[in-house]
Task: structure prediction
Amino acid sequence: MSQPRWIDRQAALAELVARLRRTPRFALDLEGDGYHRYPEHIALIQIALPDGSVYLLDPHALGDLSGLGEILADRAVTKVMHSADFDLRSLDRDYAMPVRGLVDTAIGAQFCGSSHTGLAAVVEEYLALTMDKPVDTQRLDWSRRPLPDHALRYAANDVAHLLALQDALMARLDSLGRREWVEEECRRLEGVRYAPAGPPEESFRHVRGASRLTGVQLAALREMCIYREQVARQLGLPPGRLLPDALLVALAQGRGGDRTRRSGAVAYLWPGLLAARDRGRRGPIPPSLPARRWPVWSTDALRRLEALKDWRRREAARLGLTAGLVWPLAHLERLALSPDRPAAELDDSQAPLVRQWQWRELGLSLETVVNQIRGAGWLGQAAPTATPATKDGWAPDQDGGPVVAGRRPRNRKGAPGSDTRAAGDG
Result:
C-alpha cells in the first residue's frame, strides 16, 4: 500500500474525481463521528484505486462533494465496500448520495460459506493477510484534526485490501456458481436509505425499559427525553453518552440516587433533568398505543412451520450456508399460516422477501415440501385474520416466537422471526 494522500482541497478532489471516472472500480469506506458528536456526520471518506493508491477525504473541509456523488451513482463504475449498509445510510443522510454498482465483500464472504465476515477475518481467510486493528481506534474521534498517524494507517488499511479481496471472493463464487446470487443481494442493498429516528416526543417509547413504566412514569420519561435531546443538540454530544437510558428509566420510577453521587455531565445536568421529570409527572399522560394483534398459531400451523424450517436447514447444510441466507423466515411463516395458497402469492410484489435467485435455485424444492405437507393432512384450520403489527404483515413475538392460542410463548431455539436485512435473517 502506498502512502495515503490527504484530500482537503477542491482542486485535489477534482483531480481524484477525474481519475475515478477513468477507473473500472474502486474501494470505498467511511468513518463517522457518532461516538463523540451529535448529530452524527461522516468524518472521513477512504478510497483505494486498482494501482494501490489510497486517498483520505476530509468531507468537512471539502464541503461540496457533488463530483464524487456523480461517480457513486454511476453503475458503470464498481464500488467495493465491506458491510456497506451503515455507510450507505450515512451517505444518504448527509449528502442524499446513492451508491450504484455496489459489491459488498461481506455478502460475498457469506455466500462463500464463511462463518466470520468481519473485514479482518475475511482478509485473513481469503488473502492470508493479518490486518492490524488497534483497539484504541474503535472509538476514535474521527472529526478531530489533525488525525494521528496510527488513525490514518487504520483508515487506509480498511480499503487497501478490498479490491484484491473482491477478486478472491468472485473467483470462489464463480466456482460455486453463486456470483449472480451476490449481485442480486448487492443490488438489493443499494436501495437502503437513512430512516431518521422520531422526535423525543414519540421515540421515548423505544427507550429500553419504557415498556415497564406506568402512565405517569412514561410522562416523566417523555419530558426527560425531550430535555436530553435539547441539551445534546446544544452541546453537540450523543444523548446516550450524556444521560444514559437506564438513568432516565430509573428516575422515572423514582430511583436513580441523588446529585451528590453524580459527576461530570450528569451532575451538571441534574437540576434540569429533575425539573423535566417533575414537569412530566404534572403533565398529561401519554396516550396508550393500540394493542398489537398477532396471528394465532394452531398446532397444525406450528407443525407446518417446523417442517418448512427443517427443509431450510437441510438446504442450508447442502449449500454450506447459514439458514438465514437460504430462505426468508418471514415468508415461511406466511406459508405455514396459509398453506393452501401458492407460495409466490404470499410474497410482497412491491418489496419482495424472497430473492429471484432463491426462487430459481430452491423454488421447486420448496414446492415439493409444501406438497408433502398438504399430503400429510396438516392443513388444519386457516389462521384467523389479525391486524398486522409489522411491515410484512406477520408479527413474531418480541422473543421471536409465534402466538399459540392467543398467547406468546417464551422463545425456543429456531422460533419464528422476521427478516429485514439484505442477505438473510441470521
